[in-house]
């Protein structure tokens, strides 16, 4: 039974090689990875909204959990300490007061939270992980394309050091020992049905790139 979603996602990413991919990703690839993850969140959100229309309780629950998985997974992949980020936001929210926010409709009349005088917004300074590495300009993007075309992929241990310092490489979470085979003795191929596929576009049916 799980008691720590952040640790669960971290171990899942270890199992499926996400951290390994991140370690060798170029700035341009990191940028596209974040864009992909945001699209992924929208996809899950749209599916959950559709489940609401069709009154499918099972898919609503599944969709809400999927949203958490993708969001926490993105933070994990980017080397962000999700627990510290959560605590910062929780502390700021707990410092709010119950009141009426005129700019936000509240037709159900539920208790709403407003920012009292002197309220301080949460700060994630020092906990941005490797997100800044994904902010590339056109010139850098072109250099990246050239590097990838010649097989010279940008790689540095510093990127993984950042992840480790933020508690995202097993520093603060329990590491999962990588199994090598299923219970029936079949060897595990971690490039199949994994987050690696979504990032790389590899079709596990034929092992080739799938750009469709």
Please describe what this structure looks like:
With 212 residues, this protein is mainly alpha-helical. Helices cover 50% and strands 5% of the residues. The protein folds into two domains: 5-81 and 127-209, no CATH class; 87-122, no CATH class. It contains eight helices and four strands, in the order αααααββαααββ. A two-stranded antiparallel ribbon has the order 1-2. A hairpin with a 4-residue loop joins β3 (202-203) and β4. The longest helix is centred in the first third of the chain and has 27 residues, at 27-53. The model is unreliable at 153-176 and 200-212 (pLDDT under 50).
Question: What is the helix fraction of residues, given as a range?
Answer: 40-55%
| Total domain count | 2
Strand order across the largest sheet: 1-2
Rounded to the nearest angstrom, the radius of gyration is: 20 Å
Number of strands: 4
Shape: globular
Secondary-structure element order, N to C = HHHHHEEHHHEE
Question: What would the average pLDDT be, to the nearest integer?
Answer: 77
Quaternary structure state of the chains depicted:
single chain
Which regions contain 5 or more consecutive residues with pLDDT less than 50? 153-176, 200-212
Cα(first) to Cα(last) distance is: 38 Å
Mind summarizing the main beta sheet?
2 strands, antiparallel
Percent strand? under 5%
């Amino acid at each position: 039974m799980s008691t720590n979603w952040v640790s669960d996602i971290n171990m899942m990413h270890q199992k499926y090689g996400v951290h390994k991919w991140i370690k060798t990703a170029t700035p341009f690839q990191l940028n596209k990875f974040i864009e992909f993850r945001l699209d992924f969140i929208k996809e899950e959100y749209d599916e959950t909204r559709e489940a609401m229309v069709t009154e499918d309780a099972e898919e609503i629950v599944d969709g809400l959990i999927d949203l958490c998985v993708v969001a926490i997974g993105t933070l994990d992949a980017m080397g962000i300490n999700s627990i510290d980020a959560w605590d910062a936001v929780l502390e700021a929210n707990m410092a709010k007061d119950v009141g009426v926010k005129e700019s936000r409709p509240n037709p159900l009349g539920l208790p709403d939270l407003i920012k009292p005088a002197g309220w301080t917004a949460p700060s994630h300074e020092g906990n941005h992980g490797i997100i800044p590495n994904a902010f590339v300009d056109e010139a850098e993007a072109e250099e990246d394309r050239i590097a990838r075309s010649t097989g010279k992929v940008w790689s540095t241990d510093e990127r993984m050091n950042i992840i480790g310092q933020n508690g995202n490489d097993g520093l603060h979470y329990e590491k999962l020992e990588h199994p090598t085979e299923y219970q029936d003795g079949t060897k595990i191929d971690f490039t199949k049905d994994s987050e690696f596929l979504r990032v790389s576009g590899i079709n596990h049916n034929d092992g080739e790139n799938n750009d469709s």
